[in-house]
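Design a sequence for this backbone.
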């Protein structure tokens, strides 16, 4: 009888020890599964962005403008739960290039003699649709008439720099390695020459908003790919304000902890 009681006690002790050991092994994995978020507190990024064309998307009127920029970004986590990782996000672009199409001028004179005069590399126009008009005038008793045509031909790049100190980013599904996100920024751009036309200003305001995907390689590193609407405007601080609307593709390498 005593032998049976000892055996039962030993079996019970072994089962208890096995249960505790299993629980100890399972707790770290359970905690990691439950608490692991792909959401850094501070993030630093290196980025490049390009837009191949411009048109009237929302506010801008200047056509066939290109953008190319390189810079860095900083993000700070503001709020995190299982649905969203809400971040402050700022960008500095020490290299911000803007390209305008130049103007070609053709004067087809019909009187007093048929002649054609051309000029290229003239300051940019707002729109690139050809503009033609006829003329007639008298000078020293001689009548001159013909047709003048203006169109886009050639291109010039303007060097500038930009900064977007005001920005927010929302990453969704922060426990997943692949996270869709939305973002928006506001800032300014300074260029060495007026853009997008000669009577616009060299100092312009900017804002953008867009959507993309962030792909985490690890808890510390990720890659962001996004499409954004980007607007440049002098806010009527210069003589003319045609504005530039671009659809921009941006690629970023991001790291932090």
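Sequence:
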């Amino acid at each position: 009888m005593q032998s049976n009681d000892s055996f039962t006690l030993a079996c019970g002790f072994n089962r208890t020890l096995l249960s505790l050991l299993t629980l100890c092994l399972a707790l770290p994995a359970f905690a990691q599964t439950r608490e692991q978020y792909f959401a850094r507190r501070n993030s630093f990024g290196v980025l490049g962005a390009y837009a191949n064309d411009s048109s009237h998307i929302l506010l801008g009127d200047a056509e066939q403008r290109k953008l190319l920029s390189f810079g860095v970004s900083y993000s700070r986590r503001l709020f995190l739960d299982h649905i969203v990782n809400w971040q402050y996000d700022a960008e500095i672009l020490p290299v911000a290039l803007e390209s305008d199409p130049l103007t070609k001028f053709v004067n087809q004179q019909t009187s007093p003699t048929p002649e054609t005069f051309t000029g290229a590399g003239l300051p940019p126009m707002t729109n690139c649709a050809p503009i033609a008009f006829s003329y007639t005038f008298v000078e020293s008793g001689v009548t001159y008439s013909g047709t003048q045509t203006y169109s886009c031909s050639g291109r010039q790049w303007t060097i500038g720099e930009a900064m977007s100190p005001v920005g927010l980013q929302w990453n969704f599904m922060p426990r997943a390695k692949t996270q869709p996100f939305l973002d928006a920024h506001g800032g300014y751009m300074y260029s060495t020459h007026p853009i997008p036309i000669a009577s616009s200003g060299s100092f312009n305001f900017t804002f953008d908003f867009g959507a993309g995907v962030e792909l985490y390689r690890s808890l510390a590193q990720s890659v962001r790919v996004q499409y954004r609407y980007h607007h440049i405007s002098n806010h009527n601080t210069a003589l003319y304000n045609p504005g530039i609307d671009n659809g921009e593709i941006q690629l970023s390498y991001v790291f932090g902890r």
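The radius of gyration is 31 Å.
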